[in-house]
Structure formats: C-alpha cells, structure tokens
Write a structure and sequence with these properties.
With 744 residues, the protein is an alpha/beta fold.
Length: 744
C-alpha cells in the first residue's frame, strides 16, 4: 500500500483555499456601512450640522440602528451557515499510516494518496497511479463530453468522476490547484439572478436620478425667496431625507439572512441568499427519484443462488459506493475468484458495468433493456417493477467484448427503495398550490412510477420511457408527462431548458454526477443529503437532512420574504412618493415644504421603521403575486397621493403657518398608521398590539412636536380640530376602500 506517515502529513502543505463562499465579518461590516444611501444621508447630515440645529440629525440614529441590526443579523447568519457547511463537507478516502481513513477536503495534503470513486468531485490536482476513471470536466472547460483517464494521466481539481475508480497522488493543493487558480482569476462569484434584487435596484436607480435635481430646485427656490442659509438647508433637507428609503434595501438583505439562518436550524445549507426568494416563485419542481423521494438506501428483496454466487465474485472487483452496490455487498460475501482481463465501471449513459475474463467471456450487470436482449423481461418481474421494485440483471456472453452481444441471462436481482417520510403530505401540498412536480430518473419508468405511487404521488400521473422519445416530440413529451424513466444526463438538462422556454421557473433536485448538468441549468438547484461532492458544488441549496418536508419549509421562507417585503416596501415608498411630488409642487407653486428633518424622522420611525421590522419577520404563506412592482407602486401612490392632497389642502385652508405645519404632521401620522393597518391585513392579536403601540408612539411624537419643537406649534381652535377629525375620517375611508383583498 502507498501511504503517507503522520510526520509527512504534518510537514506537507494543506488543501486550504483563500477563496471562501461567504463574506467575512469584516466584509459584512464594510458592505453594510459603506452604502450609497448611507453616503447620501451623511452628506445631508453634514449640511444640517452646519446650521447647528442638531436635533434635525435624528435620522442618523435611525440609520445607525438599521445598519447595526443588519450587521448583527448577517454575521449571525454567516456563523450559522459556516457551522452547517462543516457538516455538509464531502469526505475523501486517503491512505495514511498504512490504513485508509476518511477526511475533509481541506485536510488533504500535497503528496496525499487519494481514492477517487463514482460521484466524487476531485478536490486537488493529481496524477493517477492505479486504476482508471471517466471524468466530466464541464465545470472547468464547458465541454460536456466525458474524458477517459488512466495510469500516468493528470486530473484537474473541479472535475467529476462519472465512472470507474482509481488511486491518485496529489500534485497541487490549495491556491496552487487548477480550480482555485481559475476562481482567483475571475475574482468574483457569479451573481445569482433575483427579481427581488432587480426590483429594488430599479427603485433606487430612479430615486438617485431624481435626488440631485430636486435638491438643486429646492435650493434655488429658497434663494430666490431671499431665505437665509439655515432655513434653506433645513427645508431642503426635510424633503431630501424623505426621498431616501434608507431601510428598505437593508430590510431585504436582513430578511433573506434571517431566512437562511432559520433554514440552517433545519439542516438546510443556503449557499446563495436570493435562492430563498427564487423557490417561492417556482412553477415546476423536478425531483430525481433516488435521494429525493427515496432515502438512497436499498435492500435486496430477491436473488437466486446462481446470481448470488456469480455476483459475489463480480462485485468484489468494483469499489463503487452507490446504493445498489452497498445493498448487494451487505447481502453477499464478496471474494475475488476470477482471472480478470478488463473492468468496465457502471455509467449512467450505458446503464451497465462489465467484467471481461482472461479465459474468455464477459459478464454484464445492469438494466435488462440495455443488455441486448430481444425478448421482453419475464411478466413476474415486470409486475414487480409496477409495484416500485428495482430489477437488475446479470448476463453472460462467450464473446470478449465491451458491448453486450449474444447475451445469455443468468438471472435477476430484486431491490427495494426506502421511501422518505412526509413525501405524501409534501406532494399534496405542492399540488394544492399549483406547483407542478415532475419525477426524473435514470431507472425504468414503470419502476419509478411504482415508487412514486408508494410515496403518495398523484394517481393519474403519466409515465414515459425517454429512450423511446424522438427529437421531434421531445418538447411535447416533457410538457405533457409527469414521470420520466431512463433519462440521460443530457436529457435532464434539455428537459429543464424546455420547461424554462415554456415560461416556467424550474427547481431541480439531485444527488449524483448524472444530475450536475440539470442542476446547473435550473433556476434553483438542491443537492440532497448524501449527494456527491459534484452535485453539492453546483447546487444553490444543500440538504443535510433526509426530511422531505423541508421543501415546504424553504417554500414558506421564500413566501415570507417576498410577501412581507412587498407589504413594507409600500410604506417606505409612500414617504418617497410624497417627498418627490411635493418638492416639485412646492417649487412650482411657491409652497413651503411641510416638514423639517426631525418631523420626518418621527413620522418615518413610527409609521415605517418600527412596523416594517416587525411585519417583515411575520409568517406569511400566501402565494407570491406576479404583480410585485405594480402592487408596491400602487399602494405607495395611494398613500403618498393622500398625503400630498392633505398637505396641499391644509396649506390653503389654514392661514397660520405654525398651525398648518402641526396639522400636516398629525395627518401624516394618521395616514401612516392607516397604511400600516392596510398592509397588515388580515389583522390578528400580534398586529393589533403592534398598531396599539404605534398609536401610543404617535401620541408621544405629537408631544415632542408641541413641547420640544416649540417653533413649529401653535394652539388650535375648535374649527381646526373638526377639520382634523373630518380629514382623518376621509383618509381612513380611502384606505379602507383601497385595501388589498386577502388571498385565501
């Protein structure tokens, strides 16, 4: 045996990469503090500071608190995900101190003797010293054709083993390996597509474009009216602070980070935060049978004596670690008894393995329909397939060949899959929510249909053998059927593309190398518990649990994020809408801006900041609306439009400037609380309590305006109180009749 000693391991360079999948704590702090909108607020604060009216800089406190919460939640989530990722690391078999042990990829050292098997993603650059393998290098080169490697050949880190097994010696590790050099040269990870992020970017882009011209207009208007520097700055800053939805983007990232942390507690590793959102938009879930519906474990149900005898020797020559091999090796006593000339490892393309004997003849083991038999399988075994059992066949030919010819059947092996818990309930829930489920497998379609029925899949499901599907009717077949058997890796990828072309958002789950192409192609991908390192490397979400029900948990987290952000975004944009529109109107009609910065800060804290943080983390199981931007902008336009009309009317109806400003402040609080109540529907005890607390805070805010901001308050007369009551009722009525109908 070739091996390293403990002393050699201690001195050797380890396979540790400087490139990490998560932001560091330093990067999180930096990215939360140094933002475009924080910079704009600091510029406004600097101008206000020159007036020495420091009470108007209170909005900086809100921004500081929001930023601190964002940093805390992101760091907390990062720590939870890092701990979980340690559990999700793939193990590799190495030879040390004259024995074979399992270690993490980062513990592999230069010169290590490493065993590679079907499903492994190669963690280091290495040279083959024993055996042979077939590699998929598509992650590195983009080429989908598999490449055969044997003794003396070099293999690159990042490649995936699709068949065979070998012993290699590591020749480059850590930052010296090919995959890490490639990652370092790109300097950044691929930005994952997200509608939510795109929506936020569009909103911020429009606001940033409008901000500067509005500021210039307000300054020029104030100067033309002969106002002093202090008055111009305070009035202009009040409008500009209102335009900036400072907490909205922070709230999105924090909400996603919290979702990832909550899923981490359920042993679900989210490798890209925006994937939580994407699943909530999924129309089609493509499940691979093995490892997704089933546990990946198999049991031998039936095998005759002759097949047992032959397979006991046959399997001894293979180091395969797949579920079928494990089940058979546990059932049989495997000993090498043959004189072997050549081995052919199982591949998902051929659906069989083979052993060529030196004294003539070849044994093949795999799927009956791929072994060259002209007659159908015995009816007894066909019936077992329909019941969900897996049938594998052992055959022999006197020819020395790599391709099945002149085959004679030795016998069959009957195996059963273990079904995961909660599959029936999860399938039913997805069906009730209009999420289409398609089961894709390399196994026989009849057997897959049987397993699906056991798992609680819909009774009227249509199953089809993909080997019999032509290019002409491929697209139609994919769209019209539910269960697909004998699917090749290339077909899986093509099926995902067909569904996407039909306007579907596609999620794909898998656990093997044969799933990698489809996992990469899908809008969102899942690697199941026990998945190969290749599947984990390309998946957005990795399961470290066998609980099928976590699909439901992920969907609910995605819905919570999108639906709640949709609600609270309209609160932020109501203030923005009002500030932009009223600023322009104030310049055109020579009106004074209704609020100074501290008043806007109080209004924002009570009607936006506090309720948005509470509402964002509330459970929300509603289906995601396809009218995200339309709903947000409509609600914001209604809320902002009411406030603009109210302030304009008050400016014309109330001649005393101090009284008008106080009434505008009060009506803005009423309008804001009505908006909070509207987006909180349906109400419950939790939300009623929140509204009660906000109402008390509003009363305190009025007290601040009366007793602290004395220059902005004058006692009201009876007619003005009646005016406030009437206008308050009108505001409430408009919001009531424009409320969103709650979807059941």
């Amino acid at each position: 045996m070739k091996y390293l000693t403990s002393e050699e391991v201690t001195k050797a360079k380890k396979n540790i990469s400087e490139i990490k999948p998560y932001k560091t704590t330093k990067e999180i702090i930096f990215s939360n503090i140094f933002t475009f909108f924080n910079a704009m607020n600091l510029v406004l604060a600097a101008f206000i500071a020159t007036t020495l009216r420091f009470e108007n800089m209170l909005f900086l406190g809100v921004i500081t608190i929001n930023t601190a919460i964002g940093i805390f939640q992101e760091v907390r989530s990062k720590n939870a995900l890092e701990k979980l990722s340690l559990l999700g690391r793939s193990k590799y078999r190495v030879n040390r101190d004259n024995e074979t042990i399992n270690i993490d990829s980062e513990e592999i050292v230069l010169g290590e003797y490493l065993h590679l098997n079907l499903g492994d993603q190669i963690p280091v650059d290495a040279e083959i010293i024993e055996g042979s393998i077939e590699l998929d290098e598509s992650l590195l080169t983009g080429e989908s054709d598999n490449i055969f490697k044997t003794v003396g050949d070099k293999v690159m880190s990042g490649s995936n083993v699709v068949s065979g097994s070998c012993l290699v010696r590591a020749i480059a590790v850590g930052e010296d390996s090919y995959i890490n050099k490639l990652a370092k040269s790109t300097k950044e990870f691929k930005k994952y597509p997200s509608k939510l992020r795109d929506y936020m970017d569009k909103i911020l882009k429009v606001i940033s474009i409008l901000l500067v011209p509005v500021a210039i207009m307000l300054y020029m208007r104030g100067a033309s009216l002969g106002r002093g520097y202090v008055e111009i700055v305070l009035r202009s800053a009040g409008a500009l602070v209102g335009m900036i939805p400072e907490g909205l983007i922070l709230l999105v990232s924090v909400s996603l980070a919290v979702a990832a942390m909550k899923l981490a507690k359920k042993k679900v590793l989210v490798q890209e935060l925006y994937c939580v959102e994407t699943l909530a938009r999924v129309d089609v879930l493509c499940f691979d049978k093995t490892g997704t519906i089933t546990t990946g474990n198999m049991n031998v149900v039936e095998i005759d004596d002759e097949v047992s005898e032959k397979l006991s020797s046959y399997l001894a020559y293979f180091d395969d670690e797949n579920a079928t091999s494990r089940a058979l090796k546990n059932h049989l006593t495997c000993k090498k008894q043959w004189n072997v000339e050549e081995l052919g490892a199982f591949s998902s393309k051929n659906k069989y393995s083979f052993i060529k004997l030196k004294n003539g003849g070849t044994y093949f083991f795999g799927a009956y329909e791929f072994l060259g038999f002209s007659s159908e399988m015995d009816e007894y075994y066909e019936n077992l397939k329909k019941e969900g059992y897996r049938i594998l066949s052992l055959a022999y030919t006197e020819d020395s060949t790599n391709i099945p010819t002149n085959m004679k059947l030795v016998g069959h092996v009957v195996l059963s899959d273990e079904i995961k818990e909660n599959t029936k309930e999860t399938f039913k829930y997805f069906e009730s929510q209009g999420v289409e489920v398609k089961i894709i497998s390399g196994d026989n379609h009849i057997a897959v249909y049987g397993v699906a029925k056991k798992a609680g899949f819909k009774e009227d499901a249509k199953a089809i053998d993909m080997t019999k599907v032509t290019e002409e009717n491929f697209e139609k077949t994919v769209l019209e059927n539910d269960i697909f058997g004998r699917v090749t890796p290339e077909q899986k990828q093509k099926m995902v593309a067909v569904l996407q072309k039909a306007g579907k958002t596609v999620a794909m789950s898998g656990d093997g190398v044969n799933d990698v192409l489809a996992l990469k192609k899908a809008d969102i991908s899942f690697a199941m518990n026990g998945a190969t390192s290749a599947a984990k490397s390309v998946s957005n979400i990795v399961f470290l649990t066998d609980d099928f029900g976590v699909f439901y948990d992920i969907l609910m987290e995605g819905r919570r994020v999108i639906n709640n952000i949709q609600k609270v975004a309209s609160l932020f944009l109501t203030k923005t809408f009002f500030s932009i529109v009223f600023s322009i109107l104030s310049v055109i009609f020579a009106l004074e801006f209704a609020f100074i910065p501290i008043q806007f800060t109080i209004i924002s804290a009570i009607t936006i900041g506090i309720p948005s943080f509470f509402l964002t983390f509330e459970a929300n199981k509603e289906k995601v609306s396809n009218n995200f931007m339309k709903d947000i902008l409509t609600n914001a336009a209604i809320g902002g439009g009411i406030l603009v009309a109210t302030v304009l009317l008050t400016n014309f109806a109330i001649p005393d400037n101090s009284q008008a400003k106080f009434i505008c402040f009060l009506l803005a609080l009423i309008n804001g609380l009505c908006m909070v109540a509207k987006v909180s529907l349906p109400l419950n005890k939790y939300k009623v309590a929140l509204l009660s607390i906000l109402s008390i805070a509003a009363i305190i805010g009025l007290g601040v305006n009366i007793f602290i901001l004395k220059n902005h308050f004058a006692p009201l007369v009876f007619s003005q109180v009646i005016y406030i009551i009437i206008l308050g009722l009108v505001i409430s009525t408009v919001h009531f009749f424009t409320r969103r109908k709650v979807r059941k």
